[in-house]
Amino acid sequence: MGVPETDPLAQLRCRRLELKDSAKMQRAEPPPPPQTVTVLLVAIDGDTQSRIIDQLPPPHYQLVASSTPNLALHLLVDEKLHVDLVLSSVSSKDDEEGYNFIAQVQRLRKNIPHVVIFEAEGSGDPEIIRVNKLGVCYILWKPVSEQSSEIKNLRQHVFRRNEGSSSLVSFPQKSLKKENDQQPSEKEPESSKKQRMVWDKELNTLFVKAVNELGDGK
């Protein structure tokens, strides 16, 4: 025997089913990956910019260069310019303009992946942690000529962001070295040499998780 239509419980169940069906129909599909990725280059020196341009040819990439962070912010505010990825530089650990620009980009266009280029010398764990907290999804290190494969695959960060997943920050091996580490002398046996730590994807994920949970100690 069927449940009478006037049964309030039956009406509630029917209403819940209707809402579920409606939610499925209205659920937005993720946007398709762009055929051409537009990259905004910000305050990057001429030599580095030339090397990047060589690695990001059309039609896969369209490059827009800005000589200053302020000009880049005006371009981002202008909705007429579509930008898929921002690539900026931080010249040193004291480059407050570079750090402030990263923070302002996140406030303006939080959905845009941001990749930063660091100077190889003078940057370490504190700087990496800082840009990670500001929202940077990946780090390149000068000289960029040694990272051609990473540059060619910058579009992967756009695809990951469109799919709702975050990219991993690249942590360099150099930041794991201690200042008092010395190369073993020629007289030392092979067994006394220190083994190098391999910074793989799993270790990178654990590091990012620890940073997010514990903070940077400030």
From TrEMBL:
Residues 176-198 have a biased composition (Basic and acidic residues). The keyword Transcription regulation applies. One of its GO terms (biological process) is phosphorelay signal transduction system. Gene3D superfamilies: 3.40.50.2300. Keywords: Transcription, Transcription regulation, Two-component regulatory system. Residues 38-157 form the Response regulatory domain. This is Response regulatory domain-containing protein. It comes from Acacia crassicarpa (northern wattle). The lineage of its organism: Eukaryota, Viridiplantae, Streptophyta, Embryophyta, Tracheophyta.
